[in-house]
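pinned: reference chain
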Amino acid sequence: MLVNTLLIPIMGATVKTLAEMDVGTLEMLTWRAEIVLVLLLPFLLKAEHREAVRTADIRAHAIHAAFAIATMACFYFALRTLPLATVTSINFTTPIFALLLAWLLFGERVSLAGWSAMGAGFLGTILILRPDASGIGLDVVVVLVGSILAAGMNLAVRRMPARSSNYAVVFYLSLFGAIFYALIGGPSLRMPTATEFGLYMALGVLALGIHTCVTFAFRFATSMLIGALDYARIVWAILIGLFFFAEQPDFMDGLGIVLIVLSGWVVMRSPKASPPQNAA
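pinned: its structure tokens
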């Protein structure tokens, strides 16, 4: 899981590097989706993976994939202009939104600690974003929407049939993503330069690495421990943003990050807390 906390900010840095090369978000997502599917196909040579794909609940996987595809699009878009630490810290509001959605949609009980955590997370978000009289920018709205969609993805995973294997989850997410982006991004896709293609390959490999690390982590550790370790991501995000993109959080940013992390920690301590889902 600690390896995973480094891979995700590296993926974010790769997205920012491509954005600085004037590569559009749709182009990044399309190449990434197709590369990930190609990398996954050889694993179908294994009989148990073919059986898992054949017997999977397609509807459940489609719902999960819809949330995941939309979430990825939001975070890739926001990373073009927002600091890596800002996007990462706002991403940590996902467990809070998941708690709120579970209360609204499924009537799950929220404790006083849960409501307090939501309040602290909201305050931390305001401190980081600090909207002025003109409101907040489009990129900020998009990253917040991405966090809400990631919460929906969490709930979709929680309600996925137990027979769905980890490979089936990743395969159908990648398959639906490849089809979706081939339809909307394929017609305008251009031949990348060697540097761009290398970065696209890095996005695909990083995405598979992230999914693999999460899978192994859940085999050997509890959701509580994994959720706690996941917060190391903010350290890497700050360091990578500082040294590679000259992004330096100020005191108010730091205070907001602390509040969001604390609120997420409280939510993770809930027995009904969802496992962390990463927008890879």
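why pinned: The first helix runs from residue 2 to 20. The chain has one domain: 2-268.
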